Fold this sequence. Notes:
Blueprint: E1 16-18, E2 21-23, E3 29-32, E4 39-43, H1 48-65, H2 72-88, H3 90-100, H4 105-124, E5 133-135, E6 141-149, E7 152-156, H5 162-175, E8 179-183, H6 190-201, E9 209-211, H7 216-224, E10 231-235, H8 238-251, E11 256-259, E12 265-268, H9 274-286, E13 298-302, H10 306-318, H11 338-353, E14 357-360, E15 375-378, H12 385-388, E16 395-401, H13 404-411, E17 416-417, E18 419-423, H14 427-436, E19 441-444, E20 460-461, E21 464-465, H15 470-475, E22 478-486
Parallel strand pairs: 7-8, 7-10, 8-9, 10-11, 12-13, 12-18, 13-16, 15-16, 18-19
Antiparallel strand pairs: 1-2, 3-4, 5-6, 6-22, 11-21, 14-15, 17-20
Helix pairs in contact: 2-4, 2-6, 3-4, 3-6, 4-5, 7-8, 9-10
Amino acid sequence: MDLSFDPADVSLPSGHYIGGRHRPATGGVTLYRPSDGVAFADCPIGDENLVDEAVQTALAALKASGWASCRPRERVNAMHRWADLIEAEAETLARLEAVASTRPVAQAIEADVAITAEQIRFFAEMADKEGGDLVPTAESQMGMILTEPYGVVGAITPWNFPIAMAGWKLGPALAAGNAVVLKPSEMTPFSTVYLAMLAERAGLPAGLINIVLGDGPTTGNAITGHPDIGKISFTGSTRAGQAIMANVARIGVKPMTLELGGKSPQIVFADADMDLAADCVTRGIIANAGQVCVAGSRLLVEESAAEALAAAIARRMAEIRPGATWEAETGFPPIISQRQIARIAEIVQASVAQGAKVMAGGARIDRSGYFYQPTLLGEVRADSPAVTEEIFGPVLTMQTFRSEDEALMLARHPTYGLAAGVYTRDLSRAMRVTKRIEAGTVWVNRYGRSRDHILPTGGYKSSGIGKDLGREAYRANRRQKSVLIDL
């Protein structure tokens, strides 16, 4: 099957999706296709009134449907039907994803859509398996820990993996008995709207999922500041996460799950399998053109192995061929916007001006759209912007070390602690280093998530609070109530 398509042939869902109905709207943010820079649609900006309507619709849907109080297996079955529809509509979802985002259509089908369906099923199965506890108390008493949903969860997702990130938010919230008001990125809204449409077709009550389109300052603030939203779940930049925390604090207190930025190290010891390390390190920075929160953007390599490893990575980078997201064979996609590619170029240039050596790439790719070469920068200073700042592009810096302690010192970042990679054949060293790294996820002799959704993800320090995926994500969507009864 040829997955390539003409982007002009894609029919886009129009407007917001509230209470099971489209709410057409005009104006807003003009959207440009990253693969060719062509303006192709507008994204409306939902205001406070529209967000309030979505929240009240969600509350009414919860009450009318009994979603929170029904037999948990009913939620399980409905969500399984939804996952089935997601798989059946994979090509439509992938096209909606590819036309607006940086996700190549083949990768969207094989990974993003398939993983989203898996996530929905994974969290659905927790609905009738995770619950409260009886706890030991005096013989004359009964102690219980009950759990219950928050009601309405407010979710905000980023542009880099729109479908999968929506699955991160919707899956655990719905399985736990909540309704959701979700704002996708204003740059990539369409696949998320279609995902909500599929949920209603699968039998989930209308109004349980409400998609309000818009930007952060208007729509995002209205969601995070709404008094009837019980919990916030957000994936995005650290700066945006800080703004959300401040906005929530302005109107009160509510729980939050924040998966934020990263500047993740990949530590390669001289005893590592160098071919494996070169493959993993390269994939860790070129995946989605580096537009990944866990991108392994800082290579730390033992000095004796540095020259050979750098050459191997540079060769692999040189072999990469860019392509439009609607072409089936594309493996290396564009940058999301003109603004973002300009920022990448500015950081690389500033780092070179400070003395960094360009060992591969270092410039825009000469073609239409927003493409940047896979880039390796050596001889970087510790205070180089390429080392300190989250670039969100295919730019890898390289620093060398002579000892395990020096490697860990270089790995430590003053701001971020999202993920890290370690490459060594020495299991004892792998465990020592893993325990000392300040990061919420550590991969050893690999880089990147698997499809084991049981493993939670989330960061240390300013990389976030709380966890997505795993049991932790489900539990974070239910609040606890302690009960003590004198018999």
